[in-house]
Specification:
Chain lengths: ~150, ~150
DNA sequence: GTTGAAAGACACCATCC
DNA sequence: GGATGGTGTCTTTCAAC
């Protein structure tokens, strides 16, 4: 699929406010609304635009703790781990990685003590290395390479 | 701020489709639309609902590589690293962590070779440990503790 | 918290360049 | 590929309860 600068700008604007109407979006990219609507529908059907969602402040919901846990599975018990991580709540993400460990997991929890439950749960088939989040850095995240377009 | 089950359900529904109209949202939570609108405005102004955004498939934009990089800053050159990570493109996130290393960074890149540029750039003031993502696991991410509500 | 009404915004379609 | 104009629907908002 060919994605031009206009598509990228549409993605950028929707990433900043996904509730923008096609009309308003059209204004901002200096296009007519049928054209913009068609581009958005195409981005959706091609799967580039996977979905419309919100950003939630989990701290305000009582989840004050974030941590990364590196998991090293023992004795090839990957299926066991996959089943476990699929069901465990409060997992923001889990990636299979190439490197010193097998998986990197991020959890959002209400309190530090909740880390223990996770670690104890995997302990019979995997070892862990925990990193508690202190703060988050500001980053640019310029995936759309839009710097010069806006 | 008091957040009840209805608020959580609203957050859940908006996280699945942030373009839902207040009318449609009202239907789904069995409330009138003025009530839902008021709740959404409250969630916004309290900062629980931080913003409306989209999910983008970066692979379809040519970013085929994801990796985690643990960064250990040498000789207390934290300001240098903070300035660097603030400007470097393609950083999905960067967290200051308590544990064996100083920071954990996630990058999204077009090709494996692009990792080298990042590593070389920080090498004068920090050491790195790289993990290339192989796959992503499915997870529940049940932060809203909604299992019984839906 | 609800209902109902009114004004406005919206998406959609046909048509055209 | 893109623009314009008309139509009917949807939506928000407000007042009254």
């Amino acid at each position: 699929m060919k994605i031009d600068d206009l598509d990228k700008k549409i993605l950028y604007l929707l990433s900043k406010d996904s509730r923008l109407s096609m009309r308003e979006l059209a204004k901002r990219v200096h296009l007519s609304s049928p054209s913009v609507t068609e581009r958005v529908r195409r981005l959706e059907s091609e799967g580039v635009l996977k979905g419309y969602t919100i950003e939630i402040d989990y701290k305000k919901l009582g989840f004050d703790v974030e941590c990364f846990i590196e998991v090293t599975v023992r004795n090839g018990q990957y299926i066991k781990f996959n089943n476990f991580i699929n069901e465990y709540p409060f997992v923001e993400f889990c990636y299979r990685i190439a490197g010193k460990t097998c998986y990197i997991v991020k959890l959002r929890l209400k309190k530090i003590a909740d880390i223990e439950h996770f670690i104890n749960s995997v302990n019979s088939f995997a070892s862990t290395e925990t990193y508690v989040v202190i703060s988050k850095n500001e980053t640019k995240s310029d995936y759309l390479e839009l710097e010069e377009l806006i």
